[in-house]
Write a structure and sequence with these properties.
Aspartate Aminotransferase, domain 1; alpha+beta; about 190 residues; 2 domains
Amino acid sequence: MNPKVDFYFSKTEKWSAELKKLRQIILDCGLAEELKWGVPCYTFQKSNIVLLHVFKKYCAVLFTKGALLKDAHNILIQQTENTQSARQIRFTYVGEISEMEPILKAYICEAIDAEKAGLKVTFKETAEFTIPPELQGKLDEMPALKTAFDALTPGRQRGYILHFSSAKQSKTRTSRVEKYVQHILDGKGLTD
């Protein structure tokens, strides 16, 4: 246990029993405990293996390269359709964690083995993402915008595509595109 991480467990009331049990299981697997992004992160030779997360309706163990795991028990959850690497196992009570302890340890060991083997997740190329019609229409309408968009790094392009696509309504997507036209023309990413 890393004392620098203790405060996280003391401040989380709703899932404290569950987190305490998950922490013990993960540490039993020989991982180092650190605090990253404000949450407990468990590493093997400085590589992130799992993180603990709390949400309103559940707490979760997040496997940073969960897409590489075999998932023999079909329990890994992809949080969103755009999540490419990470996978979660969600829990809602301590008994569930205790019942799944051997399975959870097996998944953690598999994740460690994947890291030892140097396995990498194959990410989709930016060109494989569908450009929302509202953005495509604006790119077709403004050649300078298309040139500027094509000149952005793949990560910045992907950021815009995912941000625009995440809106459910066309008018919201259109509004988002309009809001960021100048940003794109200036060669900036979504958060620059």
